[in-house]
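User: Let's play a game. I give you a shape written as tokens, and you guess the letters that built it. Ready? Here's round one.
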């Protein structure tokens, strides 16, 4: 079971221990604090105190007594990645009131557009109709800017009687003072969470402890109202557990509680159980099969369940006692103990865990454990295997965090990591950086017999995408990648896309159509939206070149919708799909949509850095063609001026050369003839004249009256200097503005 980004609806305990069969949360009734939480007037609530102050217990009790539905997410380091955090939020809200699927789509691509993610999250929250409480436990794990920006949107979009309750043991990563000044945040800190004498007395009394008043005062004084310390004090006061608290008092820090746990709790546990827990304490969750593999033993599942029943501070994560987590204080203490053990025991255990999680399909845990175990080579291989899924599902931030942890110097010496960085740069639109890292990887792949074929395919795909020596090299590199990828997988979608583009530019439409259709299908299967929209856009250009405008419209519309749905609107690599949408819309005289896409694609095109000439020329040509369709000769001329020089890098791309010449001729005709005087409405009518529809049928298509069509046709005839429909069609064809569909 993979529990990365695990979320839980409802409440959960903080410790799997009990006093006389009763749990901590059954004994510690915090009515006064629950009342403050229920009546909090602000949309956000923060519980800020060290471990052991009952933050999670208090939230669980509030959930039991409040009529509003509760959802909760226990945060981990993985949630610093916005894709993981948003997925956890969507899962948490699912049983209460599902959030729209578009929210997840916004993070399922390389380098998610955080502005779009935040906007969609804000809108999704404001549209909710069910008041609820979302609990974010262990908030201290959110440290990076992407995760905090998602949290900011979450707080901003929480309205009405809904609440976001956050618990943290470390300094909160949010602007507490500002939020309090804006009356948006209620804070309960350690001073609020300590137990009063009355609560402590009631708690120990409910535990069945017969303690005289003087001794009760001593216990309360020594624990200073610290709930977890009182709880452990109650454990030690049960029959046969000892004579009370240690002589040293609790100063309110975690060190004192850890010492107390060691002396009064673990000392009484069987040595075999303590050793077992020490060796698995580094795991964030404990399962029978996992622990068996890590310890090379058997029976771990039954042992975990038995220890949970014997108050060994294990928290069940499900109702079947399959998975547990260790109380954080106990885990911290035992991890330190494991690190102090001599030899390579800790490293060996980490690497076995990495092996298990890799087989279980959880690369995030597997890679982190491999790094913790001191095996960067294994981590590098796992990172490379994760590239297609992570780059296309918004997990690039996680990859960058791994690379940063390993270091760029080590990455440059490892082909897996060098190619990982190269493909990340490619997805970000930085061709120069992609080429640099591919060059770093190239000598590391020699001799080929000693290297995984998928690595060599990854290098070939960089060569194909950049196509520094023309379309022939692009096709050859794509063929190399195709021959090296023996098994079905996500890289095949990229391979077929680039092979299809090469065939299209080399004027082999049938081969292009086969490869591009295959690429679109594979990209959909592997959830790779960026490559899917590029394949659909290229198919739209292919249809337009064959004068099949109905098909071009459908494909361009699908590609453009995919860009929006998948949150690719700010990715430079999406420039081509947006440009093709502008071209098709301009041809249909959907002027407003075409102008918007033309501006958006030009902005994305400007952000490309030393990218493949084919991509930049094709994008600029589509935009220039759109400008011609919109009668904007100046914009078309400017775009062509940027595209022409790069054609020198594509000596074997006759299609692009011919298209540029056709667009230049259209610019000349606009400048020389009466076409420039035509209004958008007149152009729209003229484009439909070759279809042989009657004026009434044209009016129905355009949703105007027949008289309006006749008026626009007469006006266009005068501007073109023609007197019949046939002459008008010929004039339009000569000016490059006629269409057959």
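Assistant: Ready! My guess for every position:
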């Amino acid at each position: 079971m993979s529990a990365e980004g695990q979320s839980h609806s409802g409440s959960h305990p903080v410790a799997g221990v009990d006093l006389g069969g009763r749990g901590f949360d059954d004994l510690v009734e915090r009515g006064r604090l629950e009342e403050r939480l229920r009546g909090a007037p602000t949309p956000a609530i923060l519980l800020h105190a060290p471990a052991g102050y009952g933050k999670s217990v208090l939230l669980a009790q509030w959930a039991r007594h409040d009529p509003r539905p509760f959802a909760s997410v226990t945060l981990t380091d993985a949630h610093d990645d916005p894709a993981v955090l948003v997925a956890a939020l969507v899962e948490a809200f699912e049983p209460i009131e599902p959030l729209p699927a578009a929210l997840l789509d916004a993070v399922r691509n390389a380098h998610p557009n955080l502005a779009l993610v935040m906007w969609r999250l804000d809108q999704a929250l404001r549209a909710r109709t069910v008041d609820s409480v979302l609990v974010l436990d262990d908030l201290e794990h959110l440290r990076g800017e992407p995760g905090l920006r998602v949290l900011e949107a979450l707080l901003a979009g929480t309205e009405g009687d809904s609440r976001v309750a956050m618990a943290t043991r470390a300094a909160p990563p949010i602007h507490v003072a500002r939020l309090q000044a804006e009356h948006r945040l209620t804070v309960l800190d350690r001073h609020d969470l300590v137990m009063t004498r009355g609560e402590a007395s009631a708690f120990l009394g409910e535990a069945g402890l017969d303690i005289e008043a003087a001794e009760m005062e001593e216990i309360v004084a020594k624990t200073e109202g610290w709930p977890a310390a009182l709880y452990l004090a109650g454990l030690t006061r049960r029959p046969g557990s000892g004579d009370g608290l240690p002589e040293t008092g609790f100063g309110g820090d975690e060190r004192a509680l850890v010492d107390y746990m060691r002396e009064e709790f673990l000392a009484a546990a069987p040595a075999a159980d303590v050793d077992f827990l020490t060796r698995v304490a580094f795991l964030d969750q404990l399962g029978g099969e996992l622990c068996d593999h890590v310890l090379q033993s058997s029976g771990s599942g039954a042992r975990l369940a038995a220890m949970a029943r014997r108050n060994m501070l294990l928290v069940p994560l499900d109702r079947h006692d399959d998975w547990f987590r260790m109380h954080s204080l106990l885990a911290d203490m035992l991890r330190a103990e494991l690190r102090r053990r001599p030899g390579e025991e800790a490293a060996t255990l980490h690497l076995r865990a990495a092996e298990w999680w890799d087989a279980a399909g959880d690369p995030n845990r597997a890679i982190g454990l491999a790094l913790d175990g001191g095996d960067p080579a294994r981590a590098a291989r796992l990172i490379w295997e994760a590239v297609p899924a992570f780059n296309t599902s918004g997990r690039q931030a996680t990859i960058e965090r791994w690379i940063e942890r390993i270091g760029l110097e080590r990455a440059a010496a490892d082909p897996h990591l060098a190619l990982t960085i190269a493909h990340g740069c490619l997805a970000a639109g930085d061709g120069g950086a992609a080429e640099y890292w591919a060059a770093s990887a190239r000598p590391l792949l020699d001799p080929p017999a000693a290297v995984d074929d998928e690595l060599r395919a990854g290098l070939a795909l960089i060569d194909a995408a950049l196509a520094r020596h023309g379309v022939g090299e692009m096709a050859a590199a794509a063929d190399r990648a195709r021959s090296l990828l023996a098994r079905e997988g996500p890289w095949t979608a990229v391979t077929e896309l680039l092979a299809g583009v090469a065939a299209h530019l080399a004027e082999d439409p049938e081969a292009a159509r086969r490869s591009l259709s295959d690429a679109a299908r594979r990209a959909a299967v592997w959830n790779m939206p960026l490559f899917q929209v590029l394949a659909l856009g290229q198919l739209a250009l292919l249809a337009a070149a064959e004068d099949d405008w109905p098909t071009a419209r459908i494909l361009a519309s699908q590609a453009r919708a995919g860009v929006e749905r998948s949150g690719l609107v700010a990715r430079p690599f999406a420039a081509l799909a947006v440009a093709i949408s502008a071209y098709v819309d301009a041809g249909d005289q959907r002027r407003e949509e075409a102008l918007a896409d033309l501006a958006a694609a030009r902005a994305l095109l400007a952000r490309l850095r030393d990218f493949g000439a084919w991509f930049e020329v094709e994008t600029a040509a589509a935009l220039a063609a759109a400008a011609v369709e919109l009668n904007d000769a100046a914009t078309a001329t400017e775009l062509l001026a940027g595209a022409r020089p790069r054609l020198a890098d594509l000596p074997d791309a006759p299609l692009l050369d011919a298209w540029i010449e056709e667009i230049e001729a259209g610019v000349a005709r606009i400048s020389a003839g009466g076409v420039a005087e035509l209004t958008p409405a007149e152009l729209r009518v003229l484009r439909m004249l070759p279809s042989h529809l009657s004026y009434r049928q044209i009016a129905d298509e355009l949703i105007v009256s027949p008289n309006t069509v006749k008026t626009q046709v007469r006006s266009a005839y005068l501007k073109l200097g023609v007197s019949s429909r046939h002459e008008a069609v010929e004039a339009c064809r000569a000016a490059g503005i006629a269409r057959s569909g």
